[in-house]
Write a structure and sequence with these properties.
This protein is about 35% helix and about 15% strand. It is built from eight helices and eight strands. The strands form two sheets. It has a five-stranded parallel β-sheet with strand order 3-1-4-5-6, sandwiched between helices. Helix 5 links the parallel strand 4 and strand 5. Helix 5 packs across helix 6.
Length: about 270
């Protein structure tokens, strides 16, 4: 989408202009007018770690599914996160366009990407770090252009730890840093879920985090008759814990949305 090559000749210039026109998001065209509501709606853009799942996927869950537990019922959440999406593919499929058409003044847009952006073997998903920043700008400017507030959320950590020390590693560190840089550059609110999730995993240790991630024994759940050992996605208890970290991060931002954060006590850990 973002051409870094040198333009050589009129043909290349024309092709570049055509690509630019093709890549302009639909929301850059005329949008329906939207007036602010009495209470804000929180829209969420992200991947499978954020997604809302139905009963057929139980116990798999995303933090975007669980975050309403920590907010006043006055707040409406619209979770548009979907599995296997990167900052690029989410836009290319029109998912950001859907959000921008619905979002209104005083609403919020939570944005978590990075997991799938790092997949070099998937050109439909992969983004270089400069392109990652440019795609994030589309989310940021799209929300701001509608009078809403974007909030960047650094990619949640996966179950990846040092085998010698048991300490957890930062996942996708280059994308975490890129998101922080664009937040600083454009003065965007940021919840450092990468930092808080890794710190949380360290309190549990490698064994304790089995109750957070999607690890089940055979026969426990219809969706996973043979059991599952997944170190990326969460079971319901884990998604609830991660949603709490996001909620705490929002509360610490000291913005109007923070006043709607409630029930912030940590949920019981299921054994």
């Amino acid at each position: 989408m973002f051409n870094k090559g040198k333009k050589k000749g009129n043909v290349v210039i024309i092709l570049s202009l055509l690509l630019l026109l093709i890549s302009v998001p639909v929301f850059s065209l005329k949008l329906p007018e939207r007036k602010s509501g009495e209470n804000p709606t929180v829209f969420i853009a992200g991947d499978s770690t954020v997604q809302t799942y139905d009963e057929t996927s139980k116990p798999r869950a995303g933090w975007g599914q669980m975050i309403p537990n920590y907010f006043s019922p006055k707040i409406t959440f619209e979770n548009h996160a979907f599995r296997g999406r990167s900052s690029k593919s989410f836009i290319n499929e029109g998912r950001l366009d859907t959000i921008i058409r619905k979002i209104k003044p005083n609403d919020y847009l939570l944005i978590q990407f990075g997991h799938n952006d790092s997949r070099k073997n998937r050109p439909d998903l992969y983004t270089t770090l400069p392109d990652f920043k440019n795609y994030l700008k589309l989310y940021i400017n799209g929300a701001r252009g509608r009078g809403a507030t974007p909030i960047l959320v650094t990619p949640v950590g996966i179950r990846d730890f040092n085998r010698d020390t048991g300490k957890f590693n930062v996942s996708f560190p280059e994308y975490v840093q890129a998101m922080k840089e664009i937040a600083s550059e454009l003065d965007v609110l940021l919840v450092d879920l990468s930092l808080s999730s890794v710190a949380y995993y360290d309190t549990l240790g490698p064994i304790g985090t089995l109750s957070v991630f999607l690890h089940t024994k055979p026969g426990m759940y219809k969706a996973y008759p043979k059991g599952v050992h997944d170190n990326i996605h969460f079971q319901e208890n884990g998604a609830l814990q991660i949603a709490r970290l996001v909620s705490l991060g929002i509360k610490d931002l000291n913005i109007p949305l923070a006043s709607y954060v409630t029930n912030i006590d940590p949920p019981a850990v299921e054994k």
